[in-house]
């Protein structure tokens, strides 16, 4: 699952659903877990964001 988010108040922090939160530019991603996400999926995500497509996408 990918989320395009913006912090509008407070700070990013861990929750019961995630061990950490962080923002990444398209050209500065951390190492991917290729068994869970592929580079092509990340590219498609950023293309959708840049194109203004905000609806949920499923595969």
Q: State the separation between the terminal residues, measured CA to CA.
A: 11 Å
* Radius of gyration, taken over Cα atoms and rounded to an integer in Å: 13 Å
Largest sheet: none
Number of helices: 1
Query: SSE string, helix = H, strand = E?
Result: H
The overall pLDDT average reads 85
Q: Strand pairing plus helix content: what structural class?
A: mainly alpha
Q: Considering DSSP H and I runs of 4 or more, what fraction of the residues is helical? A: 10-25%
Strand content: under 5%
Q: What's the multimeric state?
A: single chain
Which descriptor suits the 3D outline?
Answer: globular
Q: Which regions are unreliable across 5 or more consecutive residues at pLDDT < 50? A: none
Strand tally: 0
Features:
59 residues, mainly alpha, 1 helix, 0% strand, globular
Written account of the structure:
The chain is mostly helical and 59 residues long. Helix content is 20%, strand content 0%. The chain has 1 helix and no strands. The protein has one helix spanning 39-50. The chain is globular. The termini are close together. The relative contact order is 0.15. The model has no long low-confidence stretch (mean pLDDT 85).
How is this structure best summarized?
By secondary structure, the protein is mainly α. 20% of the residues lie in helices and 0% in strands.
């Amino acid at each position: 699952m990918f989320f395009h988010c913006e912090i509008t108040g407070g700070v990013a922090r861990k929750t019961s659903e995630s061990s950490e939160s962080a923002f990444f530019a398209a050209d500065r991603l951390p190492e991917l877990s290729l068994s869970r996400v592929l580079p092509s999926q990340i590219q498609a995500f950023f293309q959708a964001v840049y194109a203004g497509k905000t609806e949920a996408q499923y595969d």
